[in-house]
Design a protein that fits this description.
The chain contains 22 helices and eight strands. It is elongated, with a radius of gyration of 30 Å. The strands form three sheets. The protein has a four-stranded mixed β-sheet with strand order 3-4-6-8. It folds into two domains: about 350 residues, no CATH class; about 80 residues, 2-Layer Sandwich (Transcription Regulator spoIIAA). Helix 1 crosses helix 14, helix 5 runs parallel beside helix 18 and helix 17 runs antiparallel to helix 18. Helix content is about 65%, strand content about 5%.
Protein backbone atom coordinates (compact mmCIF):
# COMPACT_ATOMS: atom_id res chain seq x y z
CA UNK A 1 0.00 0.00 0.00
CA UNK A 2 3.01 2.30 0.34
CA UNK A 3 3.25 2.71 -3.44
CA UNK A 4 -0.43 3.69 -3.60
CA UNK A 5 0.08 6.52 -1.12
CA UNK A 6 3.57 7.40 -2.33
CA UNK A 7 2.30 10.37 -4.38
CA UNK A 8 -0.43 11.54 -1.99
CA UNK A 9 0.73 15.17 -2.25
CA UNK A 10 -0.07 15.11 -5.98
CA UNK A 11 -2.99 12.68 -6.01
CA UNK A 12 -5.02 14.46 -3.32
CA UNK A 13 -5.39 17.86 -5.07
CA UNK A 14 -5.78 16.15 -8.43
CA UNK A 15 -8.65 14.02 -7.11
CA UNK A 16 -10.44 17.16 -5.88
CA UNK A 17 -10.17 18.78 -9.31
CA UNK A 18 -11.38 15.61 -11.04
CA UNK A 19 -14.38 15.36 -8.71
CA UNK A 20 -15.29 19.00 -9.41
CA UNK A 21 -15.31 18.18 -13.13
CA UNK A 22 -17.08 14.85 -12.62
CA UNK A 23 -20.05 16.04 -10.52
CA UNK A 24 -21.60 18.31 -13.19
CA UNK A 25 -20.80 15.74 -15.87
CA UNK A 26 -22.44 12.95 -13.85
CA UNK A 27 -25.58 15.06 -13.49
CA UNK A 28 -25.48 16.15 -17.12
CA UNK A 29 -25.05 12.64 -18.50
CA UNK A 30 -27.93 11.43 -16.32
CA UNK A 31 -29.96 14.25 -17.84
CA UNK A 32 -28.89 13.27 -21.37
CA UNK A 33 -29.75 9.64 -20.59
CA UNK A 34 -33.22 10.45 -19.29
CA UNK A 35 -32.26 8.78 -16.00
CA UNK A 36 -32.56 9.96 -12.37
CA UNK A 37 -29.76 12.42 -11.43
CA UNK A 38 -28.77 10.21 -8.49
CA UNK A 39 -28.00 7.33 -10.89
CA UNK A 40 -25.35 9.49 -12.57
CA UNK A 41 -23.73 10.49 -9.27
CA UNK A 42 -23.82 6.86 -8.09
CA UNK A 43 -22.09 5.80 -11.31
CA UNK A 44 -19.36 8.35 -10.56
CA UNK A 45 -18.87 6.87 -7.10
CA UNK A 46 -18.69 3.33 -8.50
CA UNK A 47 -16.23 4.45 -11.19
CA UNK A 48 -13.91 5.76 -8.50
CA UNK A 49 -14.35 3.47 -5.50
CA UNK A 50 -14.95 0.15 -7.30
CA UNK A 51 -13.39 0.35 -10.76
CA UNK A 52 -10.53 2.56 -9.55
CA UNK A 53 -9.61 0.07 -6.83
CA UNK A 54 -9.52 -2.94 -9.20
CA UNK A 55 -8.13 -1.28 -12.32
CA UNK A 56 -4.48 -1.42 -13.24
CA UNK A 57 -4.66 1.97 -14.95
CA UNK A 58 -2.47 4.48 -13.09
CA UNK A 59 -4.26 7.57 -14.41
CA UNK A 60 -7.58 6.44 -15.93
CA UNK A 61 -10.79 7.67 -14.28
CA UNK A 62 -14.10 5.89 -14.82
CA UNK A 63 -17.71 7.00 -14.50
CA UNK A 64 -20.86 7.50 -16.57
CA UNK A 65 -19.95 8.21 -20.19
CA UNK A 66 -21.63 10.54 -22.65
CA UNK A 67 -21.01 7.89 -25.29
CA UNK A 68 -23.53 5.57 -23.63
CA UNK A 69 -26.27 8.18 -23.21
CA UNK A 70 -27.85 7.35 -26.56
CA UNK A 71 -28.00 3.65 -25.65
CA UNK A 72 -29.55 4.39 -22.25
CA UNK A 73 -32.29 6.58 -23.73
CA UNK A 74 -33.29 4.13 -26.47
CA UNK A 75 -32.87 1.02 -24.30
CA UNK A 76 -35.02 2.24 -21.41
CA UNK A 77 -37.73 3.19 -23.92
CA UNK A 78 -37.48 -0.18 -25.70
CA UNK A 79 -37.44 -2.24 -22.48
CA UNK A 80 -40.20 -0.23 -20.86
CA UNK A 81 -38.67 0.16 -17.40
CA UNK A 82 -35.48 1.28 -15.68
CA UNK A 83 -35.19 -1.94 -13.57
CA UNK A 84 -35.11 -4.01 -16.78
CA UNK A 85 -32.38 -1.74 -18.08
CA UNK A 86 -30.45 -2.27 -14.82
CA UNK A 87 -30.65 -6.00 -15.48
CA UNK A 88 -29.07 -5.38 -18.89
CA UNK A 89 -26.30 -3.30 -17.25
CA UNK A 90 -25.59 -6.12 -14.78
CA UNK A 91 -25.41 -8.66 -17.60
CA UNK A 92 -23.20 -6.32 -19.63
CA UNK A 93 -20.80 -6.17 -16.69
CA UNK A 94 -20.71 -9.97 -16.51
CA UNK A 95 -19.97 -10.13 -20.26
CA UNK A 96 -17.15 -7.59 -19.86
CA UNK A 97 -15.72 -9.62 -16.99
CA UNK A 98 -15.77 -12.77 -19.13
CA UNK A 99 -14.24 -10.82 -22.01
CA UNK A 100 -11.38 -9.81 -19.74
CA UNK A 101 -10.86 -13.42 -18.63
CA UNK A 102 -10.80 -14.46 -22.30
CA UNK A 103 -8.02 -11.91 -23.01
CA UNK A 104 -10.36 -9.82 -25.15
CA UNK A 105 -8.47 -6.57 -24.69
CA UNK A 106 -7.65 -6.54 -28.41
CA UNK A 107 -11.32 -6.23 -29.44
CA UNK A 108 -10.89 -2.57 -30.39
CA UNK A 109 -8.46 -3.50 -33.15
CA UNK A 110 -11.23 -5.27 -35.08
CA UNK A 111 -13.13 -2.02 -35.63
CA UNK A 112 -11.86 0.42 -38.29
CA UNK A 113 -10.90 3.82 -36.94
CA UNK A 114 -13.36 5.43 -39.38
CA UNK A 115 -16.25 3.54 -37.77
CA UNK A 116 -15.08 4.31 -34.23
CA UNK A 117 -14.69 8.02 -35.02
CA UNK A 118 -18.07 7.97 -36.73
CA UNK A 119 -19.62 6.37 -33.66
CA UNK A 120 -18.21 9.06 -31.36
CA UNK A 121 -19.20 11.87 -33.74
CA UNK A 122 -22.72 10.45 -34.06
CA UNK A 123 -23.00 10.23 -30.29
CA UNK A 124 -21.86 13.85 -30.01
CA UNK A 125 -24.50 15.03 -32.50
CA UNK A 126 -27.19 12.99 -30.75
CA UNK A 127 -26.25 14.42 -27.35
CA UNK A 128 -26.27 17.97 -28.69
CA UNK A 129 -29.67 17.53 -30.36
CA UNK A 130 -31.10 15.95 -27.21
CA UNK A 131 -29.92 18.87 -25.07
CA UNK A 132 -31.35 21.67 -27.19
CA UNK A 133 -34.85 21.27 -25.63
CA UNK A 134 -33.35 21.61 -22.12
CA UNK A 135 -31.29 24.57 -23.29
CA UNK A 136 -34.50 26.24 -24.48
CA UNK A 137 -36.32 25.54 -21.21
CA UNK A 138 -38.37 22.53 -22.30
CA UNK A 139 -38.98 20.81 -18.97
CA UNK A 140 -38.45 17.03 -18.71
CA UNK A 141 -41.95 16.56 -17.38
CA UNK A 142 -43.38 17.97 -20.61
CA UNK A 143 -41.85 15.33 -22.82
CA UNK A 144 -44.27 13.31 -24.86
CA UNK A 145 -43.94 10.12 -26.80
CA UNK A 146 -42.65 11.72 -29.99
CA UNK A 147 -38.97 11.34 -29.18
CA UNK A 148 -36.04 13.73 -29.36
CA UNK A 149 -37.03 15.46 -32.59
CA UNK A 150 -40.60 16.02 -31.40
CA UNK A 151 -39.24 17.55 -28.16
CA UNK A 152 -36.95 19.73 -30.26
CA UNK A 153 -39.88 21.06 -32.27
CA UNK A 154 -41.96 21.69 -29.14
CA UNK A 155 -39.08 23.52 -27.44
CA UNK A 156 -38.39 25.68 -30.49
CA UNK A 157 -42.06 26.66 -30.64
CA UNK A 158 -42.11 28.03 -27.07
CA UNK A 159 -38.61 28.74 -25.68
CA UNK A 160 -38.24 29.89 -22.07
CA UNK A 161 -36.31 33.22 -22.03
CA UNK A 162 -34.74 32.59 -18.62
CA UNK A 163 -33.41 29.17 -19.55
CA UNK A 164 -32.07 30.50 -22.87
CA UNK A 165 -30.15 33.29 -21.12
CA UNK A 166 -28.61 30.81 -18.65
CA UNK A 167 -27.61 28.47 -21.48
CA UNK A 168 -25.98 31.28 -23.47
CA UNK A 169 -24.09 32.64 -20.45
CA UNK A 170 -22.82 29.18 -19.47
CA UNK A 171 -21.73 28.48 -23.06
CA UNK A 172 -19.82 31.77 -23.10
CA UNK A 173 -18.06 30.79 -19.87
CA UNK A 174 -17.12 27.39 -21.31
CA UNK A 175 -15.85 28.97 -24.53
CA UNK A 176 -13.86 31.54 -22.57
CA UNK A 177 -12.27 28.84 -20.44
CA UNK A 178 -11.05 27.07 -23.61
CA UNK A 179 -8.92 30.04 -24.61
CA UNK A 180 -5.10 29.74 -24.35
CA UNK A 181 -4.70 32.64 -21.89
CA UNK A 182 -6.79 30.76 -19.30
CA UNK A 183 -4.65 27.63 -19.64
CA UNK A 184 -1.46 29.68 -19.28
CA UNK A 185 -2.72 31.32 -16.07
CA UNK A 186 -2.13 28.85 -13.26
CA UNK A 187 -4.71 30.46 -10.97
CA UNK A 188 -7.49 30.47 -13.58
CA UNK A 189 -6.60 26.97 -14.80
CA UNK A 190 -7.25 25.62 -11.30
CA UNK A 191 -10.98 26.28 -11.78
CA UNK A 192 -12.50 23.67 -14.18
CA UNK A 193 -14.67 25.23 -16.89
CA UNK A 194 -17.70 22.94 -16.32
CA UNK A 195 -17.67 23.72 -12.58
CA UNK A 196 -17.53 27.46 -13.25
CA UNK A 197 -20.43 27.15 -15.70
CA UNK A 198 -22.47 25.38 -13.02
CA UNK A 199 -21.63 28.12 -10.50
CA UNK A 200 -22.78 30.77 -12.99
CA UNK A 201 -25.97 28.81 -13.66
CA UNK A 202 -26.73 28.41 -9.95
CA UNK A 203 -26.13 32.13 -9.31
CA UNK A 204 -28.37 33.18 -12.21
CA UNK A 205 -31.09 30.75 -11.20
CA UNK A 206 -31.07 32.03 -7.62
CA UNK A 207 -30.81 35.73 -8.48
CA UNK A 208 -34.11 37.49 -7.80
CA UNK A 209 -33.53 40.20 -10.41
CA UNK A 210 -33.18 37.52 -13.03
CA UNK A 211 -36.95 36.93 -12.93
CA UNK A 212 -37.40 39.78 -15.45
CA UNK A 213 -36.18 37.31 -18.08
CA UNK A 214 -38.72 34.74 -16.95
CA UNK A 215 -38.58 33.00 -13.59
CA UNK A 216 -37.55 29.36 -13.64
CA UNK A 217 -39.92 26.82 -12.12
CA UNK A 218 -38.94 23.87 -9.96
CA UNK A 219 -39.10 21.66 -13.07
CA UNK A 220 -36.09 23.57 -14.51
CA UNK A 221 -33.73 22.44 -11.71
CA UNK A 222 -32.03 19.17 -10.83
CA UNK A 223 -34.30 17.10 -8.64
CA UNK A 224 -32.55 14.85 -6.15
CA UNK A 225 -34.46 12.34 -4.01
CA UNK A 226 -34.93 12.79 -0.28
CA UNK A 227 -31.57 12.04 1.33
CA UNK A 228 -32.67 12.48 4.93
CA UNK A 229 -33.34 9.63 7.30
CA UNK A 230 -34.91 6.64 5.56
CA UNK A 231 -34.80 8.40 2.21
CA UNK A 232 -31.58 6.59 1.33
CA UNK A 233 -33.39 3.28 1.07
CA UNK A 234 -35.31 4.32 -2.03
CA UNK A 235 -32.19 5.44 -3.89
CA UNK A 236 -31.13 1.98 -5.01
CA UNK A 237 -33.69 0.38 -7.35
CA UNK A 238 -32.97 -3.29 -7.90
CA UNK A 239 -32.68 -4.93 -11.31
CA UNK A 240 -35.68 -6.93 -12.50
CA UNK A 241 -34.39 -10.51 -12.47
CA UNK A 242 -37.18 -11.65 -14.74
CA UNK A 243 -35.28 -9.91 -17.53
CA UNK A 244 -32.92 -12.89 -17.70
CA UNK A 245 -35.41 -14.57 -20.04
CA UNK A 246 -36.00 -11.44 -22.16
CA UNK A 247 -34.11 -11.48 -25.48
CA UNK A 248 -34.33 -7.66 -25.66
CA UNK A 249 -32.52 -7.40 -22.33
CA UNK A 250 -29.72 -9.64 -23.63
CA UNK A 251 -29.49 -7.63 -26.86
CA UNK A 252 -29.14 -4.44 -24.82
CA UNK A 253 -26.54 -6.11 -22.58
CA UNK A 254 -24.42 -7.18 -25.56
CA UNK A 255 -24.66 -3.68 -27.05
CA UNK A 256 -23.61 -2.08 -23.76
CA UNK A 257 -20.76 -4.55 -23.25
CA UNK A 258 -19.32 -3.98 -26.74
CA UNK A 259 -19.67 -0.18 -26.78
CA UNK A 260 -18.52 0.29 -23.16
CA UNK A 261 -15.50 -1.96 -23.79
CA UNK A 262 -14.60 -0.08 -26.97
CA UNK A 263 -14.89 3.32 -25.29
CA UNK A 264 -12.86 2.09 -22.32
CA UNK A 265 -10.09 0.65 -24.50
CA UNK A 266 -9.93 3.80 -26.61
CA UNK A 267 -9.71 5.93 -23.46
CA UNK A 268 -6.99 3.63 -22.10
CA UNK A 269 -4.94 4.13 -25.28
CA UNK A 270 -5.35 7.90 -25.08
CA UNK A 271 -4.54 8.09 -21.35
CA UNK A 272 -1.43 5.93 -21.74
CA UNK A 273 -0.16 8.26 -24.48
CA UNK A 274 -0.67 11.27 -22.18
CA UNK A 275 1.06 9.63 -19.21
CA UNK A 276 4.37 11.48 -18.57
CA UNK A 277 5.87 8.22 -17.27
CA UNK A 278 4.74 6.24 -20.36
CA UNK A 279 3.18 3.45 -18.30
CA UNK A 280 0.96 0.90 -20.03
CA UNK A 281 -2.41 -0.15 -18.69
CA UNK A 282 -3.13 -3.92 -18.69
CA UNK A 283 -6.17 -3.95 -20.99
CA UNK A 284 -7.57 -7.31 -19.93
CA UNK A 285 -7.44 -6.30 -16.27
CA UNK A 286 -9.19 -3.05 -17.21
CA UNK A 287 -12.04 -5.05 -18.79
CA UNK A 288 -12.28 -7.12 -15.60
CA UNK A 289 -12.49 -3.95 -13.51
CA UNK A 290 -15.10 -2.39 -15.79
CA UNK A 291 -17.09 -5.62 -15.65
CA UNK A 292 -17.16 -5.59 -11.86
CA UNK A 293 -18.08 -1.90 -11.91
CA UNK A 294 -21.00 -2.41 -14.28
CA UNK A 295 -22.26 -5.41 -12.31
CA UNK A 296 -22.25 -3.16 -9.24
CA UNK A 297 -23.95 -0.38 -11.23
CA UNK A 298 -26.71 -2.70 -12.41
CA UNK A 299 -27.25 -4.09 -8.93
CA UNK A 300 -27.31 -0.71 -7.15
CA UNK A 301 -29.29 1.28 -9.73
CA UNK A 302 -26.58 3.37 -11.42
CA UNK A 303 -25.84 4.28 -15.01
CA UNK A 304 -23.27 2.08 -16.82
CA UNK A 305 -19.64 3.15 -16.46
CA UNK A 306 -16.59 3.25 -18.71
CA UNK A 307 -13.18 4.82 -18.47
CA UNK A 308 -13.67 8.43 -19.63
CA UNK A 309 -10.96 10.40 -21.42
CA UNK A 310 -12.28 13.80 -20.21
CA UNK A 311 -11.76 12.90 -16.56
CA UNK A 312 -8.59 10.92 -17.25
CA UNK A 313 -6.98 13.86 -19.08
CA UNK A 314 -8.09 16.20 -16.28
CA UNK A 315 -6.41 13.88 -13.79
CA UNK A 316 -3.19 13.93 -15.81
CA UNK A 317 -3.22 17.71 -16.29
CA UNK A 318 -3.88 18.21 -12.56
CA UNK A 319 -0.77 16.26 -11.59
CA UNK A 320 -2.22 12.86 -10.68
CA UNK A 321 0.38 10.11 -10.38
CA UNK A 322 -1.38 6.91 -9.20
CA UNK A 323 -4.84 5.40 -9.22
CA UNK A 324 -5.38 6.78 -5.70
CA UNK A 325 -6.57 9.96 -7.40
CA UNK A 326 -9.34 8.06 -9.20
CA UNK A 327 -10.37 6.28 -5.99
CA UNK A 328 -10.50 9.50 -3.97
CA UNK A 329 -12.54 11.31 -6.62
CA UNK A 330 -15.32 8.75 -6.04
CA UNK A 331 -15.12 9.42 -2.31
CA UNK A 332 -15.46 13.20 -2.83
CA UNK A 333 -18.60 12.66 -4.95
CA UNK A 334 -20.11 10.60 -2.13
CA UNK A 335 -19.30 13.28 0.47
CA UNK A 336 -20.70 16.06 -1.77
CA UNK A 337 -23.97 14.17 -2.15
CA UNK A 338 -24.19 13.39 1.58
CA UNK A 339 -23.22 16.85 2.84
CA UNK A 340 -24.43 19.30 0.16
CA UNK A 341 -27.52 17.84 -1.54
CA UNK A 342 -29.28 21.22 -1.33
CA UNK A 343 -26.56 22.88 -3.41
CA UNK A 344 -26.80 20.17 -6.09
CA UNK A 345 -30.57 20.74 -6.23
CA UNK A 346 -29.97 24.40 -7.14
CA UNK A 347 -28.34 23.52 -10.49
CA UNK A 348 -30.52 24.49 -13.50
CA UNK A 349 -30.94 21.94 -16.30
CA UNK A 350 -29.97 24.73 -18.71
CA UNK A 351 -26.47 24.91 -17.18
CA UNK A 352 -26.01 21.16 -17.56
CA UNK A 353 -27.34 21.37 -21.12
CA UNK A 354 -24.66 23.96 -21.93
CA UNK A 355 -21.96 21.59 -20.64
CA UNK A 356 -23.33 18.72 -22.71
CA UNK A 357 -23.60 20.91 -25.81
CA UNK A 358 -19.88 21.52 -25.46
CA UNK A 359 -19.25 17.78 -24.93
CA UNK A 360 -21.24 17.00 -28.07
CA UNK A 361 -19.33 19.62 -30.05
CA UNK A 362 -15.98 18.20 -28.95
CA UNK A 363 -17.05 14.72 -30.06
CA UNK A 364 -18.27 15.95 -33.45
CA UNK A 365 -16.00 18.89 -34.30
CA UNK A 366 -16.24 20.13 -37.92
CA UNK A 367 -12.48 19.64 -38.22
CA UNK A 368 -13.03 15.90 -37.71
CA UNK A 369 -15.38 15.76 -40.70
CA UNK A 370 -12.84 17.74 -42.75
CA UNK A 371 -10.04 15.34 -41.79
CA UNK A 372 -12.10 12.29 -42.71
CA UNK A 373 -13.05 13.89 -46.04
CA UNK A 374 -9.39 14.62 -46.84
CA UNK A 375 -8.59 10.99 -46.02
CA UNK A 376 -10.46 9.89 -49.14
CA UNK A 377 -13.84 8.35 -49.81
CA UNK A 378 -12.73 4.95 -48.49
CA UNK A 379 -12.45 6.46 -44.99
CA UNK A 380 -15.20 9.05 -45.27
CA UNK A 381 -17.94 6.70 -46.51
CA UNK A 382 -17.92 4.31 -43.49
CA UNK A 383 -17.48 7.33 -41.21
CA UNK A 384 -20.49 9.28 -42.46
CA UNK A 385 -22.61 6.10 -42.69
CA UNK A 386 -21.90 5.43 -39.00
CA UNK A 387 -22.69 9.03 -38.05
CA UNK A 388 -26.04 9.02 -39.84
CA UNK A 389 -26.92 5.57 -38.50
CA UNK A 390 -26.20 6.55 -34.89
CA UNK A 391 -28.19 9.81 -35.16
CA UNK A 392 -31.24 8.57 -37.05
CA UNK A 393 -31.39 4.85 -36.09
CA UNK A 394 -29.60 3.84 -32.90
CA UNK A 395 -26.05 3.24 -31.82
CA UNK A 396 -25.90 -0.50 -32.52
CA UNK A 397 -27.52 -0.19 -35.94
CA UNK A 398 -25.30 2.79 -36.74
CA UNK A 399 -22.12 0.88 -35.93
CA UNK A 400 -23.44 -2.13 -37.84
CA UNK A 401 -24.18 0.08 -40.86
CA UNK A 402 -20.69 1.58 -40.69
CA UNK A 403 -19.09 -1.88 -40.44
CA UNK A 404 -21.15 -3.09 -43.42
CA UNK A 405 -20.02 -0.11 -45.52
CA UNK A 406 -16.40 -0.60 -44.42
CA UNK A 407 -16.60 -4.29 -45.35
CA UNK A 408 -18.09 -3.36 -48.73
CA UNK A 409 -15.16 -0.97 -49.34
CA UNK A 410 -12.69 -3.74 -48.48
CA UNK A 411 -14.42 -6.23 -50.77
CA UNK A 412 -14.55 -3.66 -53.56
CA UNK A 413 -10.84 -2.96 -53.20
CA UNK A 414 -10.09 -6.68 -53.29
CA UNK A 415 -12.26 -6.97 -56.38
CA UNK A 416 -10.72 -3.98 -58.16
CA UNK A 417 -7.03 -4.31 -57.24
CA UNK A 418 -6.01 -7.93 -56.66
CA UNK A 419 -2.95 -7.61 -58.91
CA UNK A 420 -0.60 -5.17 -60.63
CA UNK A 421 -0.71 -4.82 -64.40
CA UNK A 422 2.96 -4.21 -65.11
CA UNK A 423 2.60 -3.51 -68.86
CA UNK A 424 -0.15 -1.00 -69.54
CA UNK A 425 -0.21 -1.34 -73.35
CA UNK A 426 -2.44 -4.32 -74.13
CA UNK A 427 -2.09 -5.18 -77.83
CA UNK A 428 -2.15 -8.40 -79.82
CA UNK A 429 1.30 -9.98 -79.84
CA UNK A 430 2.59 -7.78 -77.00
CA UNK A 431 3.53 -9.62 -73.75
CA UNK A 432 1.42 -8.60 -70.80
CA UNK A 433 2.84 -9.15 -67.31
CA UNK A 434 0.50 -9.41 -64.32
CA UNK A 435 1.87 -9.66 -60.74
CA UNK A 436 -0.57 -11.07 -58.19
CA UNK A 437 -0.58 -9.63 -54.67
CA UNK A 438 0.60 -11.33 -51.48
CA UNK A 439 -2.94 -12.36 -50.55
CA UNK A 440 -5.07 -13.47 -53.50
CA UNK A 441 -8.31 -15.14 -52.44
CA UNK A 442 -11.65 -16.20 -53.91
CA UNK A 443 -12.76 -12.57 -53.50
CA UNK A 444 -10.50 -11.73 -56.45
CA UNK A 445 -11.91 -14.38 -58.82
CA UNK A 446 -14.25 -12.05 -60.70
CA UNK A 447 -11.70 -9.30 -61.41
CA UNK A 448 -8.96 -11.72 -62.50
CA UNK A 449 -11.40 -13.60 -64.73
CA UNK A 450 -12.63 -10.32 -66.22
CA UNK A 451 -9.05 -9.20 -66.98
CA UNK A 452 -8.22 -12.47 -68.71
CA UNK A 453 -11.42 -12.35 -70.75
CA UNK A 454 -10.83 -8.76 -71.91
CA UNK A 455 -7.32 -9.40 -73.27
CA UNK A 456 -7.29 -9.51 -77.11
CA UNK A 457 -6.73 -12.77 -79.05
CA UNK A 458 -3.13 -13.60 -79.82
CA UNK A 459 -1.86 -12.10 -76.57
CA UNK A 460 0.90 -13.51 -74.45
CA UNK A 461 0.10 -13.23 -70.75
CA UNK A 462 2.78 -13.77 -68.08
CA UNK A 463 1.31 -14.11 -64.58
CA UNK A 464 3.90 -13.64 -61.82
CA UNK A 465 2.97 -15.31 -58.52
CA UNK A 466 6.41 -15.05 -56.91
CA UNK A 467 5.17 -12.46 -54.38
CA UNK A 468 2.01 -14.39 -53.54
CA UNK A 469 2.19 -15.90 -50.07
CA UNK A 470 -1.19 -17.66 -50.20
CA UNK A 471 -2.53 -18.59 -53.63
CA UNK A 472 -6.15 -19.64 -53.24
CA UNK A 473 -7.17 -22.89 -54.95
CA UNK A 474 -10.02 -21.02 -56.63
CA UNK A 475 -7.49 -18.65 -58.21
CA UNK A 476 -5.39 -21.64 -59.32
CA UNK A 477 -8.43 -23.05 -61.08
CA UNK A 478 -9.01 -19.68 -62.79
CA UNK A 479 -5.43 -19.72 -64.07
CA UNK A 480 -5.65 -23.33 -65.27
CA UNK A 481 -8.94 -22.61 -67.02
CA UNK A 482 -7.43 -19.43 -68.45
CA UNK A 483 -4.62 -21.43 -70.09
CA UNK A 484 -7.09 -23.66 -71.92
CA UNK A 485 -9.37 -20.83 -73.01
CA UNK A 486 -6.39 -18.71 -74.11
CA UNK A 487 -5.07 -21.50 -76.33
CA UNK A 488 -8.45 -21.66 -78.07
CA UNK A 489 -8.06 -17.98 -78.98
CA UNK A 490 -4.45 -18.28 -80.08
CA UNK A 491 -3.13 -16.74 -76.85
CA UNK A 492 -0.62 -18.01 -74.33
CA UNK A 493 -0.98 -17.79 -70.53
CA UNK A 494 2.19 -18.51 -68.61
CA UNK A 495 2.46 -18.66 -64.81
CA UNK A 496 5.90 -17.90 -63.41
CA UNK A 497 7.35 -17.70 -59.91
CA UNK A 498 5.41 -20.66 -58.49
CA UNK A 499 7.59 -22.83 -56.24
CA UNK A 500 7.72 -26.57 -56.87
CA UNK A 501 6.39 -27.34 -53.39
CA UNK A 502 3.35 -25.10 -53.84
CA UNK A 503 2.79 -26.39 -57.37
CA UNK A 504 2.79 -30.04 -56.20
CA UNK A 505 0.58 -29.19 -53.20
CA UNK A 506 -1.91 -27.38 -55.42
CA UNK A 507 -1.89 -30.16 -58.00
CA UNK A 508 -2.49 -32.78 -55.30
CA UNK A 509 -5.35 -30.77 -53.85
CA UNK A 510 -6.93 -30.39 -57.30
CA UNK A 511 -6.59 -34.15 -57.89
CA UNK A 512 -8.37 -34.89 -54.61
CA UNK A 513 -11.04 -32.33 -55.45
CA UNK A 514 -11.64 -33.86 -58.87
CA UNK A 515 -11.85 -37.36 -57.36
CA UNK A 516 -14.45 -36.11 -54.83
CA UNK A 517 -16.48 -34.48 -57.58
CA UNK A 518 -16.33 -37.65 -59.67
CA UNK A 519 -17.47 -39.72 -56.71
CA UNK A 520 -20.38 -37.37 -56.00
CA UNK A 521 -21.38 -37.45 -59.67
CA UNK A 522 -21.29 -41.25 -59.74
CA UNK A 523 -23.25 -41.48 -56.50
CA UNK A 524 -25.96 -39.30 -57.96
CA UNK A 525 -26.51 -41.61 -60.98
CA UNK A 526 -29.61 -43.87 -60.94
CA UNK A 527 -29.01 -47.32 -59.45
CA UNK A 528 -25.51 -46.25 -58.49
CA UNK A 529 -25.73 -48.38 -55.39
CA UNK A 530 -26.45 -51.53 -57.44
CA UNK A 531 -23.62 -50.95 -59.91
Amino acid sequence: MQSLFGSLKRDLPSSLVVSLVAIPLCLGIALASGAPPFSGLLAGMIGGLVVGAISGSPLGVSGPAAGLAAIVVTSVAALGSFPLFLMAVLLAGALQFLLGLAKGGAIAYFFPSSVIKGMLAGIGIFIAIAQVPHALGFTPGAQGEGGVFADLAAAAAAPHPGAVVITVCCLLVLMLWEQPFVRRNRLLAMMPGPLLAVVVGVAMGAWGGFSSFGALSAAHFVRLPDLSGSGWGSLFPRPEWGGLSDIQVWTTAITLAVVASLETLLSVEAADKLDPQRRLTPKNRELLAQGVGNMAAGFLGALPVTQVIVRSSTNIQSGGRTKLSAILHGLWILLALALFPGVLGMIPFAALAAILLQVGYKLAKPVLFAQMWKGGWMRFTPFIATVLGVVFLDLLQGVGLGMAVALFVILRNNYMVPFHLLERSVQAGTPVRIALGEETSFLNKASIQRTLDELPPGSRIVIDVSRTVALDIDIQEILDDGRMRASERGSVVEVVGQSERRRHRTAAWLSVKHLRESYRFASALPNASQA
